[in-house]
Design brief:
With about 500 residues, the protein is of the alpha+beta class. Helix content is about 35%, strand content about 25%. The longest helix has 23 residues. The chain binds one RNA strand of 76 nucleotides through helix 1, strand 2, strand 3, strand 6 and strand 7.
Length: about 500
RNA sequence: GAUUCCGUAGCUCAGCCGGUAGAGCACAUCCCUUUUAAGGAUGGGGCCCUGGGUUCGAAUCCCAGCGGGAUCACCA
């Protein structure tokens, strides 16, 4: 490992600190009694509160001068200026702490604790007048420091590769990134709270599964040595949650890390988070109302408004959302009623509409391709699309009056699917036939078709109440709620190829 | 996977009509002392992503590779 000049200098500083008897990585606690944001909010209105503050954080800039210097300290809530005067920090004759330690041996990036009182400088800036200073952790690498003045930013740390690989740095240096992840957690808390108030039970189900099911996707495969068997990382948890409904819970949900061995894009990460919810004695119409209510609630909790700016567009989550059937929306955008077409007519129609198809696509996939190409990207405001073709919905209940369709909906926002839900198929004989149809698709070359899960069928044979089920993409919802263009911006450590 | 753009100092970037490697910030030394993106002066710092090729000579041109971004495909 070759060190840069600046890294060598910092290691030398580290050694000098040790020679001066200062532990650069002390183990004792440093008691903090306030935060920068609290000081900046409440001072000077509550001046008396801040006569003896104790605060810790990272040095983010320094303006070193003779007998008195300035620095900026960043803690988890923000930044505040420090005023360090030699004779206050070193009241005795020995001025080493100021002249040598503070001025020469401390660096931007070092983590320190300070004690002192808050005042306002001549320039009008709220500042801590430091009386004690203690090194809490030495930083051996220079930070990619960002300069700001008013609204301008200089030398921003922007390289996406470095930001994702070294997210810790991104968070230190780009504070607005920290806020995105705080929003993500608040979103999850809001959703969890919404579901708990309704008394649904948060549960945990297996991530390692002997059979992967509940979605159509290629899985990650792993191996259990003791059992001597292949296991899969789950692509969904649907079939386990439905088993719990069979077991007698009325409502269960899980925030589920799922894993799909597919392509990556700004909307896809190999591991991602879904929230799946199953409620007994309900159907998809009921679930649509719940989704509207829940997502509207989340927008209000996060933004205090149902309106959220996404890119250039203002998206309004206010209920009720628009609802169209799949055939209805296709008719709206193409002027064509395809509801009674057979596979060959659909193929002709698709080619007339310049929608690309592959030979193994069956009726359902063709309809979905037309929808995905011509309708979905144009649905910006929250919109429900209902009544999907049966071929692409092997776990959904048949529509009672519309042959070939199922009771299913998706919510589309900003041209992308946000959630997927249906009245769950609870007829075990029908379910077995659907699985068998999937096996046929698999033989036809569809490598994402579902496996037949005998234990799940056995559970259904004991009887599952009519149930509404939902899967909602947490990463995508976070992208919308935080106006983030890439999924990598809402996942702390997105998947990357290894360095070097 | 395809197309395209990018990879130069710790960071942000210039240099790319081939001829000794540049700026700002950061860093070091000195001066100043309540500064405001960076008070002033001086200075150090580079396998120019990797490997080949063309050439007297390559950061620069060509090829391949590695890593990344964007778009598309795939992913309901």
């Amino acid at each position: 490992m070759t060190l840069s000049e600046q890294e060598i200098i910092r290691r030398e500083s580290l050694n000098q600190l040790i020679e001066l008897g200062i532990n650069p990585f002390p183990s004792e606690t440093f008691e903090v009694n306030t935060t920068t944001s609290e000081i900046l909010e409440k001072f000077p209105a509550d001046e008396s509160l801040f006569q003896r503050v104790s605060i810790a954080g990272r040095i983010m800039s320094r303006r070193i001068m003779g007998a008195a210097s300035f620095a900026e300290l960043q803690d988890s809530t923000g930044r505040i200026q420090l005023y360090v005067k030699r004779d206050d920090v070193c009241p005795e004759d020995d001025k080493t702490l100021y002249n040598t330690v503070f001025k020469k041996l401390l660096d931007i990036g070092d983590i320190i604790g300070v004690k002192g009182f808050v005042f306002i400088t001549k320039m009008g800036e709220i500042t801590i007048h430091v009386q004690e200073i203690k090194l809490l952790s030495k930083s051996l690498r220079p930070l990619p420091i960002v300069k700001e003045k008013e609204d301008q930013v200089f030398d921003a740390f922007t390289d996406p590769e470095q930001r994702y690989r070294q997210r810790y740095l991104d968070l230190v240096v780009n504070p607005e990134i920290k806020n995105i992840f705080i929003m993500r957690t608040r979103l999850i808390n809001s959703m969890r709270n919404f579901l708990n108030v309704k008394s649904y039970l948060e549960v945990e189900t297996p991530i390692l599964q002997p059979l992967y099911g509940g979605a159509t996707a290629r899985p990650f495969k792993t191996f259990h040595n003791t059992l001597d068997m292949v296991l899969y990382l789950r692509i969904a948890n649907e079939l386990y949650l439905k088993r719990l409904i069979v077991g007698g819970y009325d409502g269960v949900y899980e925030f589920s890390k799922d894993f799909r061995n597919e392509g990556m894009s700004r909307f896809h990460n190999p591991e991602f988070t879904q929230m799946e919810l199953y409620v007994a004695y309900k159907d998809y119409e009921w679930m649509m109302n719940l989704v509207e209510e829940m997502v509207e609630r989340i927008a209000l909790d996060l933004h205090g408004s149902t309106q959220v700016l996404v890119g250039e567009r203002l998206i309004d989550f206010r209920r009720p959302w628009k609802r169209y059937t799949m055939f209805g929306i296709i008719q709206q955008f193409t002027g064509l009623d395809i509801s009674n077409m057979d596979e060959s007519e659909l193929r002709k129609t698709a080619s007339r509409l310049h929608v690309a198809l592959t030979p193994e696509m069956a009726k359902g996939k063709i309809i979905d391709a037309i929808f995905g190409e011509l309708c979905e990207p144009n649905l910006i405001q929250p919109t429900f699309i209902t009544d999907y073709p049966i071929e692409m919905s092997p776990l959904a209940k048949k529509h009672p009056t519309k042959p070939g369709l199922v009771e299913r909906f998706e919510a589309i926002i900003n041209g992308k699917e946000l959630c997927n839900a249906f009245s769950e198929l609870n007829d075990p004989i029908d379910q077995r036939q659907r699985f068998e149809a999937q096996l046929e698709l698999g033989k036809r070359g569809d490598d994402e078709s579902m496996a037949l899960d005998e234990d799940f069928l056995r559970a259904l044979e004991y009887g599952m109440p009519p149930t509404a089920g939902l899967g909602i993409g947490i990463d995508r919802l976070t992208m919308i709620m935080t106006n983030s263009p890439s999924i990598q911006d809402v996942i702390f450590f997105p998947q990357m190829r290894p360095e070097k």
